Amino acid sequence: MVDWSSMQGFVDKFARKHTYLRISVTDQCNLDCLYCRGRAPREMRADEDPLSFDDIVRLAGVFAKHGVEKIRISGGEPLLREDLPVLVERLAAIPGVRRLGLTTNGTLLLEKLAALKSAGLTHLNISLDALRASCFEQMTSSTQHGHVMEAIFGALHEGFSPLKLNVVVIRGVNDSEIPDFVAFTNC
Fold first, then answer.
1. Residue 134 and residue 126: Cα distance in Å, rounded?
2. Domain extents for the chain?
3. At residue 164, what are phi and psi to the nearest 5 degrees?
4. Is the pLDDT of residue 6 over 90?
5. Cβ contacts of residue 85 below 8 Å, gap of 6+?
6. pLDDT, tens digit, for every residue of 94-106?
7. 4-185: which CATH architecture?
8. Residue 143 forms beta bridges with which residues?
């Protein structure tokens, strides 16, 4: 059993202080990406319960008391979790939490952007593995490319800056788009 009360922050054996916590709120995902196939379950099994929002907030509060200042919500696809803006609001209210981020595939983001921003979300990472819709469909087995692109521009409009894009490059699939990604992110 760890005595949390005696800890003065999280320091590893190289004397690096860790102030960042990543919390996965679900294993579920609504895409079937080439690089994930066979690794993550498409649907939650009946015997697997994700942590409740109360449990997540309680754990995040303990970490914040010991120096964690940045929390990133991830998954699977975290926006599949019901009422995610409620969790964002609760995490943003924890004393000591200065930055609250979300990593998403962007397919469900546009409709929830304003609520997430209003709840206290400060940073966004959006996965975009292809700029061409046909390549996106090949990589993700999804026709949601347009939704993701709209979410990216919507996030910029909502003031998420810097906005980070995550790209998994696969030789022979999307590697030809690398120069286009450089141009796209420098505009």
1. 19
2. 4-185
3. -100, 140
4. no
5. 112, 115, 116, 118, 119
6. 999 999 999 999 9
7. Alpha-Beta Barrel (3.20)
8. none
